[in-house]
């Protein structure tokens, strides 16, 4: 029986690229996102594997638990969970919509945590049965420093990285793989959604396909942290040693509008 991967935020960007990669490597897919129409189109495109479409708005409370229960009721076993869903907002913290920032926290942190918690026991069982199993969480190079004008987004990705590293420590010595993908600026709908098309950070991006490929290969090779792109890796490394105030000022320049 083919292994099955659950991918969140699968309707576009990195999620769509991950769907193609896992399908090409023999995985059946469970795809979730808000846009059911796009998910159905991907299902038709990737018809050489079994694709289950499970629309869900992960910005809503308890949505992760609901998705888990839905798959449990349908006897769907998950070998790999890809927590890819997430979004950002650009602007001054107290001028951005509180509701949207709360939804960002729900998607980027709470739903990711709920899904990881719910599916990890099943993933452990699959690993114990000799199947390659694990979790691939998508964080960001933003996880390594504070980020003025995108303060909640940067904080949420720091949470994802810290949570993933902590769980990876708990899983050491088991066959369950925990990988955190930390991409830099990527060619997706991220900057449009964040209303940050004019930010300096948006002027230099990697393709979603290239980022997903590095993330997938790093996961299969059992790497704990994957940072696609040499300059992104250098920047993440440097952020560990720079004074926090300097790292914050650099992020502020990149998150601000291009002059």
From TrEMBL:
UniProt GO cellular component terms: membrane
GO MF annotation list: oxidoreductase activity
UniProt keyword Oxidoreductase present: yes
Keywords, comma-separated and alphabetical: Oxidoreductase
InterPro entries given in the database record: NAD(P)-bd_dom_sf, SDR_fam
Family, similarity comment: Belongs to the short-chain dehydrogenases/reductases (SDR) family.
UniProt protein name: Short-chain dehydrogenase
């Amino acid at each position: 029986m083919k292994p099955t991967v659950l991918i969140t935020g699968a309707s576009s960007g990195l999620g769509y690229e991950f769907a193609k990669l896992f399908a090409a490597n023999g995985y059946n897919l469970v795809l979730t996102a808000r846009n059911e129409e796009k998910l159905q189109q991907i299902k038709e495109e990737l018809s050489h594997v079994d694709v289950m479409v499970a629309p869900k708005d992960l910005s809503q409370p308890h949505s992760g638990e609901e998705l888990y229960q839905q798959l449990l009721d349908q006897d769907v076993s998950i070998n790999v969970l890809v927590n890819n869903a997430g979004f950002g907002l650009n602007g001054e913290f107290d001028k951005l919509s509180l509701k949207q920032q709360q939804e960002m926290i729900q998607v980027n942190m709470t739903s990711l945590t709920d899904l990881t918690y719910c599916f990890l026991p099943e993933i452990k069982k699959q690993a114990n049965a000799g199947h390659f199993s694990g979790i691939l969480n998508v964080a960001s190079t933003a996880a390594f420093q504070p980020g003025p004008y995108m303060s909640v987004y940067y904080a949420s990705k720091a949470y994802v990285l810290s949570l993933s590293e902590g769980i990876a420590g708990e899983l050491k010595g088991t066959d369950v793989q925990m990988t955190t993908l930390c991409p830099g600026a990527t060619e997706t709908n991220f900057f449009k959604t964040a209303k940050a098309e004019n930010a300096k950070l948006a002027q230099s991006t990697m393709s979603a396909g290239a980022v997903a490929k590095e993330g997938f290969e790093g996961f299969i090779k059992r790497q704990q942290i994957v940072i696609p792109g040499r300059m992104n890796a250098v920047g993440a490394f440097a952020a560990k040693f720079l004074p926090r105030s300097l790292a914050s000022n650099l992020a502020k320049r990149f998150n601000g509008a291009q002059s």
